[in-house]
Amino acid sequence: MIVLAMAIFPLIYSLSISFMHYRLIPPMPPRFNGLDNYAKILGQARFWSVIYTTSVIVIFSVFLQYVIGFAVATALNAKIRGSSVFRVLLLMPMLIAPVAVALIARMILNPVIGPLDQFLTMFGFPDLPFLSNKNWAMGSLIAVEVWQWTPFVILLMLAGLQTLPRDVYEAATLENASKWRQFWDITFPMLLPISVAIIFIRIIESFKIMDTVFVMTGGGPGIATETLTLFAYQEGFKKFNLGYTSALSFLFLIFIIVIGVIFLAIVKPYVEKRS
Known about the structure:
Layout: H1 2-17, E1 20-21, E2 31-32, H2 36-42, H3 45-77, H4 83-95, H5 98-108, H6 115-121, H7 134-162, H8 166-174, H9 179-190, H10 192-206, H11 211-216, H12 228-238, H13 242-274
Antiparallel strand pairs: 1-2
Helix pairs in contact: 3-7, 3-10, 4-7, 7-10, 10-13, 12-13
């Protein structure tokens, strides 16, 4: 009961603040303003900009994580030589703190002293604006997300592959089905439920991305790579606009719920058909 109260009270308190004009600096007493905070946020171009930016990062990074993760898990499941060593090495990025990963990535991508830029200049390439150009910065963030979280997909997909019944593949081999047909007709359909679960988890988690963006680009150039959580951080911990930030957080929650419901509604018929 105590744990439940500790979980619910901050949520209710935050919801009540979202209907108030409440700032810590300059100190102002809370004043009820109804839905003004929500209307102000929905009317801001910046809000829709960070929604778009976050969605782009999530869509591309999760897609690449799943495709690469599935491919690597399939290779590891084939019991290639040294697969046990590869498993340990491939899981290491997931065990590193995102802030540490972002710091390393920022150093590698530094346009002046970064080793990647120096390596590319050896082949005649100009200094590339990895973190100072909008498109390059978005690509860099997606690449770092893919590098760190693909091991999560590998781990779960490999577990799923190892639970598949071997007699089905033996029967398919007797029917002279190619490896490619076995993958599309047996492996992929049987792993569809776990694939949906993995993608769903990664979508929800990816929408919360902040530390990587904060360290690598700070949301820049300008607000080109600013995400929802970084936007909320800027409003809450730099401007101390608590009412506005609370409303922003609940709109974020609603947005995530809507995305989750739509995703599950789209994939549900396919999962039921394959199960």
